[in-house]
């Protein structure tokens, strides 16, 4: 048993300075633009899972969980699950657990797994969100904005191509 805890491989190498700068610039631009849009339009566009989305988009852009389909659909699917749970059962600890589990299963079934989106049911159930417009603002608009920023940031420079796939 203890042998399994050691792992079977080695840790990856430290990212290059270019990759580190991509994370710094992308994360700053991503959240900065969404925050600016939220302030300018007086709309609630920010939610904590978007910070984790930026980590994937700008520090691990080649990962399957960082592709546009997973980012956008994953956030929408998980938020929809959270809203359904909220409307059917109201807030509560068991509802949060079931919401996250169902969101994971739904994202898997739709081939759109995005780890940060797993927090969306918690945001909804802990925040008492009941308005279905939450799917559009902040979820869809925020996710699409971050993907558009990633299209620019992740394609600057020679030999860089993102996304790996769209669907």
UniProtKB/TrEMBL annotation:
InterPro entries, per database record: HPP (IPR007065), TM_HPP (IPR058581)
Pfam family for this entry, one: TM_HPP
Keywords carried by this UniProt record: Membrane, Transmembrane, Transmembrane helix
Transmembrane feature ranges: 20-38, 45-65, 71-89, 96-114, 134-153
Keyword Transmembrane helix: yes
Residues in HPP transmembrane region domain copies: 13-163
Name of the featured protein: HPP transmembrane region domain-containing protein
Organism, as annotated: Pseudovibrio exalbescens
């Amino acid at each position: 048993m203890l042998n399994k805890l050691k792992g079977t491989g080695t840790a990856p190498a430290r990212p290059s300075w270019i990759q580190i700068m991509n994370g710094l610039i992308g994360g700053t631009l991503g959240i900065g633009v969404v925050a600016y849009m939220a302030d300018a339009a007086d709309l609630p566009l920010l939610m904590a899972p978007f910070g984790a989305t930026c980590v994937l988009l700008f520090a691990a852009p080649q990962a399957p969980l960082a592709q546009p389909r997973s980012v956008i659909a994953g956030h929408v699917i998980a938020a929809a699950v959270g809203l359904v749970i909220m409307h059917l059962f109201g807030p509560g600890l068991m509802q949060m657990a079931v919401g996250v589990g169902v969101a994971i299963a739904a994202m898997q079934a739709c081939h759109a797994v995005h780890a940060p989106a797993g927090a969306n049911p918690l945001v909804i159930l802990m925040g008492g969100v009941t308005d279905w417009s939450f799917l559009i603002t902040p979820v869809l608009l925020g996710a699409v904005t971050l993907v558009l920023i990633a299209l620019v940031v992740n394609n600057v420079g020679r030999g860089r191509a993102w996304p790996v796939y769209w669907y």
